[in-house]
User: Which sequence fits this backbone?
């Protein structure tokens, strides 16, 4: 059972000397369930639960935002001009308070939410009902659940919901557009993400991977400037670190230009550690996505397989494979994201399909399947022509496979959807970015399925869902 215990913003329990001498997050971590590999399934649980939540919230002032990488706040503010309030409730037992005492003053309230749940909540009806009950407690001001996230902790029963409420510190439109250090920044994006701990990595490195994984989603929305990060850690009750210790881990692991706020610590009765972060950043963000052009190709910014390499290397004792994965997991994708953001239209500029990217998404918990789902939102299908796995991962024997989907990533590459001419511009910009190795993976067709397999290979060795992907014909 998750205990109803939350310490946020440093709380009153910042005495590091009071901590027990216990193993850190990597001591008991499972390589088969590290990173994004142990999240609550999106297609079977989270997405059906969303539909249930949306229906239950009708008649309240609370609504679900778009199913996208990050939440986009009102334009005209900078990340430092967003005030934040944290709360935690036990799912099924408690309701959160109305954010900011209900006094929104006409300002937009965006709430990020992460559900830490046991396997008993891996059911769309039960999870949906519990989330709907909790979200309904926010009824009062206009509240948008900007990003909902769920991660399973296998050795507990019950669940706990962590929320962070965001709103501009001034009425919308009253700020000028020169606050951000990024001359192209005109808006703010926010995201919340959490991952299972990695075996035998020191806490600052665990914190770095978890936070950068959360950053990738705001990067995908075009927000690359002025990152403000709040650590969130769910730890076993007998190994609870103080909020100050958690904050130290993240400050030690992250780039010096990232602002790290005081962390939030949750405790539970299991053995698993989960590390995450909420992120607010500024950039060329927009709530309105353009329609996908008729002629679109898809590329990823580097071959897939970073998480798989780390997990397989750990399980097999292959130090080279593990080191490859470790390097990929800890890379800050900011330089790549900045190059992609430069290929987005300025907020006052119309979308030009010949020059601008139409969609960017983080290839993370869903892997390639997430790109297909993104295309399906516009009635399109990803015709997958190649699956660019890293050579060292692709050559690993299938019967040694440790995680269900080789394309599931943590802090992974970006997938970019655009016309061939716009992708040529992207490729040119990425040419001088270290670590960027853009690879075209397919094109968009009009079909009934999110993904059509045109690779001619047996992808089931690497992709759990591949057996359900129809084979594409030769004709487009």
Assistant:
């Amino acid at each position: 059972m998750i205990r109803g215990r939350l310490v946020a913003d440093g709380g009153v329990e910042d005495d590091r000397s009071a901590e027990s001498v216990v193993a850190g997050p990597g001591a008991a971590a499972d390589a088969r369930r590290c990173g994004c590999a142990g999240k609550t399934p999106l297609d079977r649980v989270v997405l059906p639960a969303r539909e249930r939540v949306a229906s239950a919230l009708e008649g309240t002032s609370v609504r679900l935002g778009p199913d996208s990488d990050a939440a986009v706040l009102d334009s005209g503010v900078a990340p430092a001009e967003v005030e934040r309030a944290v709360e935690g409730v036990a799912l099924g037992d408690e309701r959160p308070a109305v954010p900011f005492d209900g006094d929104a003053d006409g300002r937009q309230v965006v709430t990020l939410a992460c559900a830490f749940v046991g396997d008993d909540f891996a059911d769309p009806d039960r999870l949906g009902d519990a989330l709907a009950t909790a979200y309904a407690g926010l009824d009062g001001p206009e509240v948008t659940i900007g990003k909902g996230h769920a991660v399973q902790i296998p050795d507990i029963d019950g669940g706990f919901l962590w929320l962070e409420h965001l709103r501009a510190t001034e009425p919308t439109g009253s700020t000028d557009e020169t606050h951000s250090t990024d001359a192209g920044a005109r808006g703010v994006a926010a995201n919340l993400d959490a991952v299972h701990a990695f075996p035998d990595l020191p806490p600052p490195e665990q914190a770095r991977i978890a936070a950068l994984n959360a950053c990738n989603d705001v990067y995908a929305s075009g927000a690359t400037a002025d990152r403000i990060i709040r650590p969130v850690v769910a730890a076993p009750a007998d190994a609870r670190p103080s909020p100050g210790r958690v904050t130290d881990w993240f400050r030690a692991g992250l780039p010096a230009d990232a602002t790290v706020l005081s962390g939030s610590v949750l405790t539970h009765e299991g053995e698993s550690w989960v590390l995450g972060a909420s992120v607010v950043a500024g950039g060329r963000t927009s709530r309105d996505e353009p329609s996908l052009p008729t002629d679109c190709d898809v590329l990823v910014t580097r071959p897939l397989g970073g998480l798989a390499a780390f997990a397989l290397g750990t399980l097999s004792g292959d130090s080279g494979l593990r080191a490859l994965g470790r390097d990929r997991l800890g890379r800050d994708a900011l330089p790549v994201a900045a190059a992609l953001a430069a290929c987005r239209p300025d907020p006052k500029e119309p979308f030009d399909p010949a020059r601008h990217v139409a969609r960017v998404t983080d290839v993370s918990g869903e892997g390639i399947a997430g790109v297909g789902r993104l295309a399906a939102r516009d009635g399109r299908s990803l015709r997958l022509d190649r699956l660019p796995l890293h050579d060292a991962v692709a050559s690993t024997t299938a019967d040694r496979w440790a995680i269900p989907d080789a394309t599931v990533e943590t802090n992974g590459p970006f997938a970019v959807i655009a016309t061939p001419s716009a992708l040529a511009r992207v490729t040119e910009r990425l040419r001088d970015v270290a670590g960027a190795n853009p690879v075209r993976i397919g094109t968009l067709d009009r079909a009934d399925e999110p993904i059509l397999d045109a690779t001619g290979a047996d992808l089931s060795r690497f992709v759990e869902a591949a057996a359900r992907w129809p084979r594409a014909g030769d004709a487009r």
